[in-house]
TrEMBL record:
Protein name as annotated: Peptidyl-prolyl cis-trans isomerase
Keyword Isomerase: yes
Enzyme class: isomerase
Pfam families recorded: FKBP_C
Catalyzed reactions per annotation: [protein]-peptidylproline (omega=180) = [protein]-peptidylproline (omega=0)
UniProt-listed Enzyme Commission number(s): 5.2.1.8
Organism: Adhaeribacter arboris
Record keywords: Isomerase, Rotamase
Length: 167
């Protein structure tokens, strides 16, 4: 024999509504854009590396590409260090958009304090005093989807950096 249970109508409706929410998980539009942009940036960077026959790079888990140019002779940069450096900022097509050499004034910032783009905070931690390196920075580690007045949103950037001093 089967037993029958009486379930109030609101319990069934509550259960069905709960199931519909669990089954309809949609991706946040911002997260979808961010994921798609990261994939596009990485493909663009890989094409650039291949076209220029660049093989001496390290890709970090965040998508930053680090290309050592000249080994440092000093202390390794640590989070919280005050770093003085010269840099040249370029687009992947080689067009320069900014340079501390042009002003003659090196940039000084505290590593990890959010004073610079995320790619610089992360890249500086890969470097030592007196080191020269190139960072290829995907847009999510640079100026994101919105960009600046001179750098369009979603732009991959290249920085030639020289650490002059670490305190």
């Amino acid at each position: 024999m089967f037993r029958t249970f009486k379930i109030p109508g609101f319990t069934i409706i509550y259960f069905l509504v709960l199931l519909s929410f669990l089954g309809c998980k949609s991706e946040d539009p911002y997260e979808k854009y961010n994921r798609q942009q990261r994939e596009a940036d990485d493909l663009y960077i890989q094409e650039y590396l291949t076209a220029n026959k660049i093989t001496n790079f390290t890709k970090t888990t965040t998508g930053l590409y680090y290309l050592p140019q000249q080994a440092g002779t000093g202390v390794k940069v640590q989070k919280g260090d005050l770093v003085k450096m010269h840099y040249i900022g370029k687009f992947l097509n080689g067009q320069k958009f900014e340079s501390s050499y042009d002003t003659g004034i090196p940039l000084t910032f505290t590593v990890g304090a959010g004073q610079v783009i995320k790619g610089w905070d992360e890249g500086a931690l890969l470097m030592s005093n007196q080191e020269k390196a190139t960072l290829i920075v995907p847009s999510h580690l640079a100026y994101g989807q919105y960009g600046t007045s001179t750098i369009p949103g979603g732009t991959v950037l290249v920085f030639d950096m020289t650490i002059l001093e670490v305190k």
